[in-house]
Amino acid sequence: MRTSFWTSLLDLIAPRRCAICGGRLEPQEALLCADCDNELEKTPFPESPYDNLMARLFWGQFPIEKASAWFYYRSHSDPSKMIYDLKYHGQMLLGEDIGEQIALRHQPFGFFDDIDAIVPVPITRRRQWKRGYNQSMQVAKGISYVTHLPIYNKVVKRQHFSQSQTHQTSIWERRENVRAAFQLVDADKIKGKHLLIIDDVVTTGATVIACGQELAKAEGVKLSVLSIGYTKE
Ligand SMILES: [Zn+2]
After folding, report:
1. Same domain for 72 and 46?
2. Can you give the CATH number for the domain in which 82 is found?
3. pLDDT 10s digits, 179-231
4. How many domains is the chain partitioned into structurally?
5. Helices 92-106 & 78-88 angle (0-180, nearest 10)
6. For labelling alongside 183, which of 166, 177, 206, 217 has CA 20 to 30 A away?
7. Which residues form the Phosphoribosyltransferase domain (predicted)?
8. Helix or strand or coil: residue 45?
9. What spacing in Å lies between the alpha carbon of 88 and ligand 1's midpoint?
10. DSSP, res 24
């Protein structure tokens, strides 16, 4: 965390801006101004991480422990722009700041206490090359700064499919593609561990399920899930 002296000094040179409204941040504020932080529709999941709407998406799919998200996601809402900036506007460091805020929100509930390592959902090499970074990895870094948990970003990889998703007509085909997209590459490293999967936004859970099922091929793995947003139906 930044000390207040350096924050004050940096604020004089380059004022920090709220990631949602763009307003100037006070020295004690981080990422969001007080107004935007109050407006943000945070989920109650940190209080009941074993049984909530998001956790239920994963029940029966893989050995799920806890699931939580920072806030309820709605497309075109003001907070959704923050995720858009992270994914499409090259705002790489924003991901780390978001990760820190997510960690600070969950830490008081002991959410990280029994977790061994963080696994960001991988993106394809092609997308990583285009974007320059994996947004979930950036969030994982921020969480790691706060929790000191190690990040395993090479235990599972994501393959590229030549068909564009927009050309697939059926949901079934799309799901089949997502299901086959992940490949476990280092089962030994994760054997018997409790891993925290990080994704940006969870809606149907299909991506996390596919990634989780691949990780669960390693013996004795337990999984928890944490995301920036959760889309409430
Ligand atoms: Zn604001």
Report:
1. yes
2. 3.40.50.2020
3. 779 999 999 999 999 999 999 999 999 999 999 999 999 999 999 999 999 99
4. 2
5. 130
6. 166
7. 156-219
8. helix
9. 20
10. B
Cα of 40 vs centre of ligand 1, distance in Å, is: 10
Q: Which tens digits make up the pLDDT trace of 143-171?
A: 999 999 999 999 999 987 655 555 556 76
Provide the residue range defining the domain that includes 23: 1-39
Say which amino acid occupies 48.
S
> Residue 108 C-alpha to ligand 1 middle, in angstroms?
24
pLDDT tens-place string over residues 15-38: 889 999 999 999 899 999 999 999
Which pair of tokens denotes residue 50? Answer: 């074993």
CA of 82 to the centre of ligand 1 (A): 11
The helix/strand/coil state of 21 is: coil
Task: Tell me how far the alpha carbon of residue 158 lies from the centroid of ligand 1, in angstroms.
Answer: 35
Contacts of 156 (CB under 8 A, 6+ apart): 119, 122, 182, 183, 184, 185, 211, 214, 215
14 Cα: distance to centroid of ligand 1 (angstroms)? 17
Angle CA 57–134–101, to nearest 5: 70
**Looking at the structure, do residues 113 and 178 belong to the same domain, yes or no?**
yes
